[in-house]
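**User:** My hope is that you can spare some time for a protein that puzzles me. As I understand it, each token names a local backbone shape. I would be glad if you read both lines and explained how they fit together. The protein I mean follows directly.
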Amino acid sequence: MALSNYDREVKSNFDALQRELGNLLPHHAGQYALMQNRQILQFCATMSDAVREGVRRFGEAPFSVQEITDQRLDIGTLISASH
């Protein structure tokens, strides 16, 4: 089954975050990264803050919010105003 644009965005952002995790943990552990196109655009203290900022910036365009943690949880939260 082919991935949707939203699923691809979350997966590619998660993969990009995992590659940088060692550099991010010392300064951003417990924060949430607002990501689009494999780029971290902003760090936020809460998931809610990151989601609000993502919706403000991108509207219905796909983006994801990833927690900066060394624990494997899931591949992130996909936010879309259309869902």
About this structure: The first helix runs from residue 5 to 28.
